[in-house]
TrEMBL record:
Provenance organism: Kribbella rubisoli
Residues in Peptidoglycan beta-N-acetylmuramidase NamZ N-terminal domain copies: 55-264
Name this polypeptide is given: Uncharacterized protein YbbC (DUF1343 family)
InterPro entries, sorted: NamZ, NamZ_C, NamZ_N, TAT_signal
Gene Ontology molecular functions: peptidoglycan beta-N-acetylmuramidase activity
Length: 427
């Protein structure tokens, strides 16, 4: 109720005119950039692909246009799109919830459109919501960050399966992969599926959500109970993006996809540094540099010194001290490192995280997995099998652990090739 009253206080904004997209672009020097998101491409076409349909939109605060207006607000104000429902993923449609949270079902105070909670919703629940609200076309527009365990792609998967079951059309408004098109890391193995990894893909998949949707539709949806291929899948492609471009290369505005993803640099390290969620170290939640600041009360200067000798491409390690305000070690002074990005195009976040975990285990007897049953289950789910954990406990080197997943990455790179939409960086 607190969140709804907070947003309701902005209800007067509902009557305010939205900024005209072409006019805003003409006045904004950033409009000269070449990269355009799928949402911008569709808006420039007057939303014609959605005309005459009852539309359900799955989005969050990242679903913006160059004038910083959300696509739902702009579609609604245009009168050209009949939005019958909005579906909010983890953190919510307007982004007011923390990790592992959502905004619940409610009426959006700005547009008056019903918003349904899609976080953790399976295909059966979503299919029921589609039927209840009369959805004929589902639109997905969320900025992903390129990691298997970032939950938005699995919200998309369940939403696609629900569309198969109801006969709805599915439209993806594509956005760049902010960490580029290179695939890296281990493959998810059978027996290790969860809400942070529902299908066999590698840890840093190197695909856009539109490309993943094509793969899901061809390979995974037909294998599901009451599954099959979509009646129609349309991907509105990003214009002028190449796979070797990182987010900072695009000229696009970064909007936090989640509360602990404040910058494109955060996204660069997240596919690896998120592994610290499985440990008793803070991964920097509750600081201004989540996933870049890593540490614990027992860590001292030796960790940074050891890591600096590894000469890991694209990053350096600065001795750092910080006090998280939430999550693990909240309100306790932690020693550790800040992962400094020295060359964004050379960053291999999963390799860096592997070295960090190996060295932490060598240096600190207190280093362990977070409290859970069975111990180490979360690191298995994040890495996709028990191989990372068992090799670590057997005192394998970081180089040996990294080498072990190379066949996974190579096989994935070959397998995904037919679904790619953008040129460059195919390895």
């Amino acid at each position: 109720m607190k969140r709804r009253s907070l947003l309701a206080g902005a209800g007067a904004l509902a009557a305010a005119p939205l900024i005209d997209v072409p006019a805003a672009q003409a006045a904004d020097p950033a409009s000269k950039r070449k990269v355009m998101t799928g949402a911008e491409v569709l808006a420039k076409d007057g939303w014609r692909a959605l005309a005459g349909q009852k539309v359900g939109v799955i989005s969050n605060p990242t679903g913006i246009l160059p004038d910083y207006q959300h696509i739902v607000d702009t579609m609604h104000a245009s009168g050209k799109v009949n939005i019958v429902a909005v579906f909010g993923p983890e953190h919510g449609f307007r982004g007011s919830a923390q990790a592992g949270g959502s905004e619940g079902d409610h009426v959006d105070p700005r547009t008056g459109i019903m918003v349904y909670d899609a976080y953790g919703a399976n295909a059966d629940k979503l299919a029921g919501l589609y039927a209840k609200s009369g959805v004929e076309t589902v639109v997905f527009d969320i900025q992903d960050v390129g990691a298997r365990f970032y939950t938005y792609i699995w919200t998309m998967f369940e939403a696609m399966l629900a569309a198969v079951r109801t006969g709805a059309k599915f439209v993806v408004l594509d956005r760049p992969n902010p960490v580029g098109g290179y695939a890296r890391g281990p493959m998810l193995k059978p027996g290790y599926t969860s809400g942070v990894g529902k299908k066999e893909i590698v840890q840093q998949h190197g695909m856009t959500v539109g490309e993943l949707a094509r793969m899901f539709n061809a390979e995974y949806l037909p294998l599901e109970p009451n599954g099959g291929r979509l009646k129609e899948l349309q991907v509105i492609e990003v214009s002028n993006w190449k796979r070797d471009q990182l987010y900072d290369d695009t000229g696009l505005t970064w909007v936090m996809p989640s509360p602990n993803m404040p910058t494109p640099d955060t996204a660069l390290v997240y596919p690896g540094l998120c592994l610290f969620e499985a440990t008793n170290m803070s991964e920097g939640r509750g600081t201004t540099r989540p996933f870049e600041l890593i540490g614990a009360p027992y860590v001292d200067y030796r960790w940074a010194e050891a890591l600096q000798t590894k000469h890991i491409p694209g990053v350096a390690f600065r001795e750092a001290y910080f006090t998280p305000t939430i999550s693990k070690n909240a309100n306790v002074l932690c020693g550790g490192v800040q992962v400094q990005i020295t060359d964004p195009h050379s960053v291999e976040a999963i390799t860096a995280a592997t070295h960090m975990i190996v060295e932490a285990r060598k240096l600190y007897p207190e280093f362990t997995w977070r409290e859970e049953t069975p111990p180490g289950r979360w690191i298995d789910l994040l890495t996709g099998s028990d191989r990372f954990r068992t090799m670590l406990l057997a005192d394998a080197t970081a180089e040996e652990i990294v080498a072990a997943w190379k066949p996974d990455t190579d096989a994935w790179t070959a397998r995904r090739a037919k679904y790619l939409l953008y040129k460059g960086a195919h390895r």
